[in-house]
Write a structure and sequence with these properties.
This protein has 174 residues and is mainly alpha-helical. Helix content is 64%, strand content 3%. A hairpin with a 4-residue loop joins β1 and β2. The model has no long low-confidence stretch (mean pLDDT 90).
């Protein structure tokens, strides 16, 4: 029960898409309804201060083969200077996912991905003594606001670019 939530719907949608990718049958109407709902919320989210939810919805939808309106990608890229590490990493992974799903936009999406990844990596916290790299801050009110989630997503974003970089090695060591 309760009201629909774009964040929670995106979370469940992401899980169901992951389940489907393993070969498990997921009722198509469930995924379609969730996708339609999430896309209907993009306009509202793009005009709000819910940057994290907007990024998570784009991240979840990036696993879908339907095209996300470029206006929303532009909006998130405009928000980049205000975004925390977790949000930035979500957007980077979403862009890289989309580059595989939308061949007509592949080059443009990969250019965006590289810009966002560069921004993300400019926010890294390195510990030279231990050779570690991490993103985000310790703690946070929600589980997704801490350095564990931010570093995990930043690692995911970096692995899609350069599996052998110092940052990926440092994040794994962290």
């Amino acid at each position: 029960g309760g009201n629909s939530s774009p964040y929670m719907t995106a979370y469940v949608y992401f899980g169901l898409k992951s389940t489907e990718e393993t070969g498990t049958i997921v009722r198509n109407n469930v995924l379609k309804r969730a996708s339609v709902y999430l896309k209907s919320k993009l306009e509202e989210l793009a005009q709000s201060d819910e940057i994290e939810t907007l990024n998570f919805v784009l991240f979840a939808l990036s696993r879908d083969s339907s095209v996300v309106d470029e206006r929303f990608l532009n909006r998130v890229e405009d928000l980049l200077p205000r975004m925390k590490e977790y949000e930035t990493a979500l957007f980077a992974v979403a862009l890289e996912n989309m580059s595989s799903n939308y061949p007509a936009m592949k080059d443009e999406l990969l250019e965006r991905y590289q810009r966002v990844l560069n921004r993300l990596n400019s926010l890294v916290k390195r510990n030279e003594k231990y050779g570690t790299a991490s993103w985000g801050d310790t703690g946070g009110w929600y589980w997704h606001q801490d350095n564990v989630e931010a570093t995990a997503l930043a690692l995911m974003a970096n692995l899609r670019n350069d599996i052998d970089s110092e940052l990926t090695e440092g994040a794994v060591r962290w």
